[in-house]
Write a structure and sequence with these properties.
Order of helices and strands: HHEHHEEHHH
Low-confidence stretches: 1-7
Number of helices: 7
Number of strands: 3
Strand content: 5-15%
Structural class: mainly alpha
Mean pLDDT: 82
Distance between the termini: 16 Å
Largest sheet: 3 strands, antiparallel
Strand order of the largest sheet: 1-3-2
Radius of gyration: 18 Å
């Protein structure tokens, strides 16, 4: 749940089986992180990410928030409904433009984020952000190539949170 270890490079074999095993390790670790986040905060990892975006960037329009998180507005809307019900968010008219509805944190929402030192954007986005640019680019190219080999469109499902982060 906590991001305290530094990144160290390990040499791994580049066989298809070895890469498959690495995928398994990554996804199991992500599932465990999501479970730990939900246990610590009582909300999903994706919901914690949403709260973190509002905490760091202030009130936002729902469309802007969905774009920032790379999810569909309908997916965001469902998350907003749940977080408003829990008392972590409010929807209100913008001070600048009364036609615009913004989403913002309540004091209860701020308090929830301050009670833990987990990575609110989720473990995988935080880990990816720590990779050197060349390594991140290589990973992106490799995954895109794998999708081409699998005959899966690059954008297919890319705007939905992973099941273990919802």
């Amino acid at each position: 749940l906590f991001m305290t270890e530094s990144i160290t490079q390990q040499k791994v074999p580049a066989s298809p089986l070895a890469v498959l095993q690495l995928f398994r390790v990554v996804f199991r670790a992500a599932q465990q992180y999501s479970a730990d986040t939900e246990k610590a905060l009582g909300i999903s990892g994706a919901q914690a990410w949403l709260l973190a975006e509002l905490y760091e960037h202030g009130p936002q329009k729902a469309g802007d928030l969905a774009a920032r998180m790379a999810i569909k507005p309908a997916t965001l809307s469902n998350m907003l409904i749940k977080l408003v019900e829990l008392g972590y968010l409010v929807r209100q008219r913008s001070d600048k433009d009364q036609r615009v509805v913004e989403v913002s944190l309540t004091e209860q929402g701020r308090g929830l984020l301050s009670k833990t030192n987990c990575a609110p954007r989720g473990w995988m986005p935080e880990a990816l952000a720590k990779l050197p640019p060349a390594q991140l680019e290589g990973l992106a190219e490799g995954l895109a190539g794998m999708l081409v080999a699998m005959n899966v469109p690059l954008a297919d499902g890319s705007d939905k949170p992973l099941p273990f982060t919802e």
